[in-house]
Amino acid sequence: MDCYLCKKNIQDIDFKDTYLLRNYISGLGKIRSKEKTGLCSSHQRHVANAIKRARHIGLLSATSK
Ligand SMILES: [Zn+2]
Hints:
Number of helices: 4
Strand content: under 5%
Low-confidence stretches: none
Shape: globular
Mean pLDDT: 90
Bound molecules: zinc ion
CATH architecture: Irregular
Helix content: 40-55%
Number of strands: 0
Distance between the termini: 33 Å
CATH class: Few Secondary Structures
Structural class: mainly alpha
Radius of gyration: 11 Å
Number of domains: 1
Largest sheet: none
């Protein structure tokens, strides 16, 4: 397993950190799959939740421009 967030020892993903989250969103504004992000399943889940939360409060748009 070669998870970027495990390497950086990031446990709590800040949903306000759109710079980080953008790395895990595809060009179409979708959450990238685990195969593409290379995250472990727990971090993948955390990232997905953070992205959903960020979208909800409008930090990330659900669709890209
Ligand atoms: Zn991880």
